[in-house]
Amino acid sequence: MHRFDVNRLPLDGAGGLIEALATVPDPRHRRGVRHPVRGLLVVAVAAVLAGAHGFQAIAECAAELAPDVLRHLGIPRGTPPRSSVFGSRCNASMAMASTACSVRGWCASRS
Question: What's the chain look like in SS3?
Fold first, then answer.
């Protein structure tokens, strides 16, 4: 199980991770979408930075977070997404180039 402290990540405000991922498009149809793409990406990036490898590990990291933390990260209901949400074909293929560019730019601005 991966433990990570999201309070140590620069999430909010100008130049924060949440802002960096705000421009990533969501290719999914609105029907059936429970978690906004930005929230999923923020949780996934934070989990990977903490050492998570794979969709199951990302979901386990999300499950460790309190509901108020999940809401702050962009998961409105405060319920952790299941691994299938991170691993679905739609989410796995969603705007990967855009996500990589956003995260790369965000990391570069931090160093």
Answer: CCCCCHHHCCCCCCCCHHHHCCCCCCCCCCCCCCCCHHHHHHHHHHHHHCCCCCHHHHHHHHHHCCHHHHHHHCCCCCCCCCHHHHHCHHHHHCCHHHHHHHHHHHHHHHC
